[in-house]
Amino acid sequence: MTSTPVNRQTFDEVMVPNYAPQAIVPVRGLGSHLWDQEGRDYIDLAGGIAVNLLGHCHPQLVQALKDQADTLWHLSNVYTNEPALALAQQLTQQTFAERVFFANSGAEANEAAFKLARKYAYDHVGPQKHEIIAFEQSFHGRTLFTVSVGGQPKYRQGFEPAPGGITHVPYNDIEALRAVISERTCAVVMEPILGEGGIIPATAEFTRAVRELCDQHNALLIYDEIQTGIGRTGKLFAYMDMGVTPDILTSAKGLGGGFPIGAMLTTAEIAASFGFGAHGSTFGGNPLACAVAGKVLDIVSDPALLADVGRKHALIADQLQRIGDKLGIFKQIRGAGLLIGAELIDAWHGKAGEFLAAARAQGLLILMAGPNVLRFTPSLVIPDEDISAAMAKLETAIEQVLAAQ
């Protein structure tokens, strides 16, 4: 069959309209640059929404994928495979975890985590201990269960009735959590930094208190590190710099460096509740994904690379602060490592999209974290010169938006 040329208009003709893709269609990427169908060059500070951890077409990841593609693609979980076993070894050797479950996405990793928490409580206490507590403005995925645990009602609207037994309280509010947690609670799930909810870090006091309350009420602590994990904050996982260890941790996004994979990590005792047949995934742990993710971990585990994430954070945050001071546009710069949010001043709340469009016109790709916050999630190995060029483009874009008012 002969295919006809495709462009952005083709999306509206053949795709379900649940997305509103930007006007450009990227066709090639290398490092921290993307090129569209017209050959225009863009500096990429979006990174596929914190996914392209080592940039586009990193040669070692490309080689790992090619080598595995010549060897073995898929088996199903009737068998295990060497890349999956090796990746699970890497993850357990470098974290608190003793057991790993592989999935295809962050939503699937969280779905497994929430099911496991309920099953563990069911096995050890009974069906009455089933409540999951999550936080307002959190985001945990788009399956019906994960979108219900997520703390943004707009994503549940129209899909009710939602699964029950889920309670939401304000983030960083210890007393609100203390007021609702009980012996019925099987788990508390939190992001170390609210991602989609505005790049809001957990305070040290809140972090400790959540762990203490979980311990007091025999509830599991689940960390959703889908956006913060795999070096994004300057540690392999954010919990490693927080003085708290979760019982279950989920990872995805950067874990595959652009190849779809998710993982749920936990202890041997908790994992035992997922006995034979309790949960599964046809493609989870496939050799292609695990081979690429193993190479990602090899590269990101380098202490020098992780240390450099902090240095690059300072380069970007300092420039954002300078731009904000000069143009009076940012209320606060926050985040950790290369997960950075710049909140717009109140007068510009709800208008972050205008700045994204202006940046794109300047050859710069950035993100939003809600309508009030510009979000930056570049490659962990983005060159300094790309950072400098990107910040210059951003400043010009902001000046143009302000001048148009």
From TrEMBL:
Which GO terms fall under biological process for this protein? L-arginine biosynthetic process
| N6-(pyridoxal phosphate)lysine, modified sites | 253
Which reaction is catalysed here? N(2)-acetyl-L-ornithine + 2-oxoglutarate = N-acetyl-L-glutamate 5-semialdehyde + L-glutamate
Which named protein is this? Acetylornithine aminotransferase
EC number, as in UniProt: 2.6.1.11
What Gene3D superfamilies does the entry give?
Answer: Aspartate Aminotransferase, domain 1 (3.90.1150.10), Type I PLP-dependent aspartate aminotransferase-like (Major domain) (3.40.640.10)
Q: Which cofactor(s) does the record list?
A: pyridoxal 5'-phosphate
Q: Which residues bind N(2)-acetyl-L-ornithine?
A: 142, 281
Predominant place of localization: cytoplasm
Q: Name one Pfam family in it.
A: Aminotran_3
| CDD domains for this protein | OAT_like
The UniProt record's further free-text remark is: May also have succinyldiaminopimelate aminotransferase activity, thus carrying out the corresponding step in lysine biosynthesis.
